[in-house]
Amino acid sequence: MYVRAKKALGQHFLKDPKIAKRIVDSLVLSDYNENNKIDVIEVGPGTGVLTQFLANEPAINLKLVEIDSESVEFLKIHYPALESSLFEDDFLRMELDDIFKGEFMVIGNFPYNISSQIFFKVLDYKGRVPQVVGMVQKEVAERLASPPGKKAYGILSVLLQAWYSIEYLFTVDENEFIPPPKVKSAVIRLRRNSRESLGCDEALFKAVIKTSFNQRRKTIRNSLKPLIGGLVLPESYLFAKRPEQLSVEEFVELTLIVNSLKETQTT
Hints:
Rossmann fold; 9 strands
């Protein structure tokens, strides 16, 4: 299903139902059925190209969040059974605890200009979000799925890979959208890994990552100076590396070192 609707928040509407079906089928639902449903929230359903397939999936208890009023009216008309599950709201500002009491999955053709913010919000609920399937700008997908040592590897790569296994599933050509974006898109899948704890202070972990990548061309020894000030760093192979060379585990190790230094400073 596709009808013309105005573009909202950088949204481009997918016109090929085969691709839409492939995106929905990327959700791994083998642990769920009509007697054991999983809550799923579709972000930015637009005119329902994904919704038409999600609504027919017996293992899914579907919620929709759409900020564009024209799209909301379209969805109410064409999916009346979902009206009580449709939220005209900004996903980034929603209190998801008010909607979901247990686990929930996230899916959508994410608006390009807020896709990174959507993933940061997912991290806020990482203990309750076992899976995310999203279509984003190709470069964003490559960044999120990138292993250490690659140019695309960055802040969000590390933060997400600490908690999720990330798969780059397939590329979608720009001509599959109305209006066509100027870039290619890609579909990625995030599946929660078995990590229950980082083993370090999570807020400091984020600060170490962000500070390191703010000067990504420098070695860790130099890029961390804004965070550690004049503290003397101990000997470690980590400080001779650049941030894109460090794995999640090495950032955890680095965080423990920085934490130890800060504790020494305060005693």
